Amino acid sequence: QVHLVESGGGLVQPGGSLRLSCAASGFTLDYYAIGWFRQAPGKEREEISCISTGAGITYYADSVKGRFTISRDKVKTTVYLQMNSLKPEDTAVYYCGSKRGCGYEYDYWGQGTQVTVSS
What are the Cα distances from residue 67, in Å, to 19, 27, 60, 104? Predict the structure, then answer.
C-alpha cells in the first residue's frame, strides 16, 4: 500500500531555512516520480518541485528556483526539499506526492506539513 508522510515543517524567520522530508512506503523511487506542491489559504495549489524516476532529473517552479533543492535517498525511500532564503510568501501547507512522471497528475499524496515564514 502506498503511503507518504511529510515532516520537517515549522515556524521560521524570513531568510531562514527548513528541510522537509517525504517518507515513502509501498513503492520504490525507481519507478515513481515524487513532487512537492503547496497550498496557501486563498491561493491555488502550486507545484513547486519534482524529481523524476531513473536519472532523477529535477524541476522547479520559478517562484522557488535557486532557493529550494529537491533530492532523494532511494535506500531510505525518502525525498527531501531543502528550502533556503525563505520568504513570507512561502507560507503554506506543503505536500509531497507520487506520480508516474513529473508531467503527470499525482496518484498519491501525504497529509501535508505546515511551513510558516514570519518574524
Answer: 12, 29, 10, 24
Residue linked to cell 515549522: 10
List pLDDT tens digits, range 6-21: 999 999 999 999 999 9
What SS3 string covers 19-68?
EEEEEEECCCCCCCEEEEEEECCCCCCEEEEEECCCCCCEEECCCCCCCE
8 Å CB contact between 14 and 119: yes
* 66: Cβ contacts below 8 Å, ≥ 6 apart: none
pLDDT tens column, 80-116: 999 999 999 999 999 999 999 999 999 999 999 999 9
Look at the block and give the residue holding cell 525507481.
30
